[in-house]
Protein: Alpha/beta hydrolase
Amino acid sequence: MTKKAENPIKSLKIPQLIIISGKILAFFSTKLVTKFASKIFTTPIKHKIPKREFQMDSKSEQKIIHVPAIDKSIVTYEYGKSDRKILLVHGWSGRGTQLFKIAEELLENGYSTISFDAPAHGKSKGQTTIMSEFIASILEIEKHFGPFDAAIGHSLGGMSVLNAIKDGLKVNKAVIIGSGDIVQDILDEFIFKMELKKELGHNLRDFFENKYQLKMDDFSAYKAAQKIEIPVLVIHDNDDPEVPVKAGIHIHHNLKNGTLMLTEGLGHRKILGNHNVIKKILEFIKNS
Structure:
């Protein structure tokens, strides 16, 4: 009989102080709480680089490049030297060295990797950002370091990779891991975690659309998937507490040339270092 994990996979929680503040603002004004929620939603947490990522951080050639489309600068990491380059894109509150296990295996197989700290993440300056800035950063990085054989994205990075390909990123293959899918679902889940009324998810969407002059649903991953011709490997864990597995399944369903790998018990982040997952990624990238 299979034993249950001693440490069950848990979803990240919003601090109680933020939840209470949101509820107080909601009592007085829908406009105020919407603005407050938008600030929390677009502010990533900057974590210190853990020891396991020190090698990639110290051995990478790091540069600061400006992204004119958003008038922001980002820190890039070039890990290894090879004509066969793979672009790595971290998720929300991640950093350019987060996919280090994947990067190390790629290096051993003759590839080099390019990754980056998205705006307001890691060593890149700023306090707030949004997915469109991830996408703009990817497209600018291609100008400096491309062409890439493949792109690999985790979580929001997976959504960003699909949207970047839709917007012109040239890669032969793509891998998305634990990717989100429908933008409204993501907003609604955030509002749920904030313990606010469900209709505020629509208020939040309208706020962003007015602020950025963008239609939020246009960034939904399944919509980008419908326009992508290249092979895409979709990897998702059945027990992912951050992004439901239905997201990965739905994205795969909308791909013209997709492969789906579902895992068990790896959650949202442990999946990045799993031997079988990395083996599948390497096989997918190497096989023509």
Q: What stands out?
A: The first strand starts at residue 61 and ends at 67. Residues 114 and 145 are 8 Å apart (CA to CA).
